[in-house]
Amino acid sequence: MLAAKVIDNIWATRKAESLVGLKFMLVEVLGGVDAGRLIIAVDTIGAGFGERVLVCTGSSARRMLGRDDVPVDAAIVGIIDEDCLF
Amino acid sequence: MLAAKVIDNIWATRKAESLVGLKFMLVEVLGGVDAGRLIIAVDTIGAGFGERVLVCTGSSARRMLGRDDVPVDAAIVGIIDEDCLF
Amino acid sequence: MLAAKVIDNIWATRKAESLVGLKFMLVEVLGGVDAGRLIIAVDTIGAGFGERVLVCTGSSARRMLGRDDVPVDAAIVGIIDEDCLF
Amino acid sequence: MLAAKVIDNIWATRKAESLVGLKFMLVEVLGGVDAGRLIIAVDTIGAGFGERVLVCTGSSARRMLGRDDVPVDAAIVGIIDEDCLF
Amino acid sequence: MLAAKVIDNIWATRKAESLVGLKFMLVEVLGGVDAGRLIIAVDTIGAGFGERVLVCTGSSARRMLGRDDVPVDAAIVGIIDEDCLF
């Protein structure tokens, strides 16, 4: 997983039918040589702007949705505790 | 997913039989440290040149086509709303 | 797999239900042009801070957990021997 | 997929039994920030040196071979038309 | 696949049970913009130090082991012929 910060919502009215109802967030990878990489991740946890999150990518991201038929390759799977320093 | 801009069509007359009839678009990744990365993605949504799209990669891209037997690793899964600023 | 050094714990109280009980470690990739890349990996082996570990990524990381339904894309699969120089 | 140029053959007499009979080509990624990345891809289409090809990577590359048991992570899936400018 | 050079053994006494008996090699990616990237790959072919090998990554690497339950994301699948210049 990657540590990332939620920086914005992404709105896409025209999209795959299987994606309707999902919330898309723009997240920015934190730390290390990948810092600043932007990913659009599905959020089912309710992350807020500025929160640090765990982002899971690839086929594993579909596991977050509990179904295997959605074209999703990144999902927020956890919110890093505020007092977790790293 | 990645945010990208549609910049061109890609034509390939000789290709895998399972790809016949699919539309290939050249997209350029937007923002972050991956900005400028080029990907060729299948489009089933009808994205136009200059539009900003959500691109799904890896095995999840095959979910966009509703079949698992196609050699496709990138697909446009949504079109970002024009008034979505990020 | 990647060689990486364990540098910290990651705490996420709010997370996917399937992740409850798993230990998350921040690891830093060692050597080569990826040196300094940060990954958050699940640890089921009991790696300690400062230890060098083998990190497996992608769908293969789920094999470390013996179940395929968890949204995990990185796992510590081994601890590199202290006297293994490279 | 990636756009790449075929630049050489790769010969490997000692290899996995399931790879016997497959043709391996060295391709160089074209354009964008990945330009110059080298990939060894299986070719079942008959691409020639200097031709621009579509390369599919990851699990989707196995779909090109119509079997799921081969250790192949990159395959040429199409040849870009000569008059396709991008 | 990637072309890489075998540069060392990696020893990990504590590891996943399913990895016991496998040989791990440190390989360095050759050529292109990824040159110098280090990967730890399972070797079942008997590659020697200094040899140039084909490395398969991701889920396809598990195909080299003939089983799908091992947490392995990179495997040596062939040895590039000595007289193959590229």
From TrEMBL, chains A, B, C, D, E:
CDD domains: EutN_CcmL (cd01614). Keywords: Bacterial microcompartment, Carboxysome. GO terms for cellular component: carboxysome. It is found in: Carboxysome. Its main location: other. InterPro entries: EutN_CcmL, EutN_CcmL_sf. Pfam families: EutN_CcmL (PF03319). This is Ethanolamine utilization protein EutN. It comes from Desulforamulus ferrireducens.
